[in-house]
Known about the structure:
The complex is a heterodimer of chains A (about 240) and B (about 240).
Chain A: H1 3-18, H2 21-41, H3 46-78, H4 81-86, H5 92-120, H6 130-152, H7 158-175, H8 187-194, H9 197-209, H10 215-237
Helix pairs in contact in A: 1-5, 2-3, 2-5, 3-5, 3-6, 3-7, 3-9, 5-6, 6-9, 6-10, 7-9, 9-10
Chain B: H1 3-9, E1 13-24, E2 27-38, E3 42-46, H2 53-61, E4 68-73, E5 76-77, E6 87-90, H3 102-113, H4 118-126, H5 142-154, E7 160-164, H6 172-187, E8 191-196, E9 207-212, E10 215-220, H7 222-229, H8 234-244
Parallel strand pairs in B: 3-8, 3-9, 6-7, 7-8
Antiparallel strand pairs in B: 1-2, 1-4, 4-5, 9-10
Helix pairs in contact in B: 4-5, 7-8
Amino acid sequence: MSITATLASAARVLGQLRRDPRTLAMVFLVPPALLTLFKYIFNQQPLIFERIGAPMIGLFPLIIMFLITSIAMLRERSSGTLERLMSLPIAKLDLLLGYALAFALLAALQGAVTGAVAFGALDVHAAGPHWAVVLLAIGNALLGMALGLFLSAFATTEFQAVQFLPAVLLPQILLAGLLIPRTHMPHALEIVSDALPVSYAYDALAKVTTNNTGTWFWLDIAIVAASIMLALELGATTLRRRTA
Amino acid sequence: MNSSDAELSAGGVAIEIRDLHVRRGGKPILPGISLRVPAGTVTGLLGPSGSGKTTLMRAIVGVQIIESGQVIVFGQPAGTPALRRRVAYVTQAPSVYTDLTVEENLRYFARILDAPRQRINEVIRLVGLTSQTRQEARTLSGGELSRTSLAVALLGKPELLVLDEPTVDVDPILRRELWQTFYELADGGASLLVSSHVMDEAARCQELVLMRGGRIIATGSPDELLARTHTGELEDAFVALAEAA
């Protein structure tokens, strides 16, 4: 492992993003815009927006980093740059941590911007500390990144990669309690949702929203952290030095 | 100790391949080949498209899953971590980040290789990209892009350079300069394995390895091959050797 290689990789990924201002603009503008849309959709039912407003700040980075990572890794694979890196003296973990660092930074900015708009202008409600919502947004970004990295190994085209979002991430978000609380779902679905990492990411956000941050909150955090590690570990095994 | 081990320890051999079998997609690509590439020379790997040149190069660099056989580079099995600094590989399709500039690409790979900063400008000069330094790679021409890829490979001053068709799409003047660069590197002690499917490049190499259908049909210097086949052109020599094989 090498700090230099990790930082160099993070700087490289950020450099690539910097050359894509339209993507950057969308990263920062789309979440506040969607959140605004939600607020007015639920104009007649303010209680629903009160329940899901703050958790949504933390869910956007999950979705966006999942997509960006899948495409970025697919590009690394198809452009031959991954093969080149794998023939160079860089540890797989350095490359993955480089991506994680770059996307965590992006997620922090995205969370801060979305949070500022949400808490400042949209009257989004969170009983717990607002910075905790932003921190959880970063954690969710890492979860999205790790899942996207792992799943990108199973996509051979960008068409396939983008469809992992509705195929893999959307069901998790639907089952996480955003639409209705998990305990109100059919028991079978509740059990399924118990096995999905996004459920715990959502639970943690919901607990900050209601300022219910006891032992169970930290258990949620631990499960999300373990899921990130597992997905990164699985993702690392898909980076091969030798190919057929 | 037999003679091949003695040569290896003397550093005279860069690559030693024994009975290498490789399959790709269920098809045998290299059906058992053996080869020795001397150190400090420019060796040309010549053969038509589909003759197994790229697969052989991938095996030498250690990125190819092989079925059986041995590929030894500088006395160590190909792909050994210690060889990642000593061996550089340039794929046929340029593998650089097209959304970064030439300089940004080189800066990234230089940090991974621990190459000093001034080396970046050196390799840019070597491949003749001085006026494209700050250009985004996606806007480069095909030849400029492959030279960017070559520049990355030169960063770490590798002892073995494996170049897959490095002079495709390159204009004749620059091609001559690149070959000059290859010889300067060889004079400095580096070993180069350069593939091409164009026979007129063969004459520029010190040693030749001729391939066809996954097999090596002949090895030797251009003059040796001409003498052996009683021909005046390497193209004719290839045909004669292919028919005899």
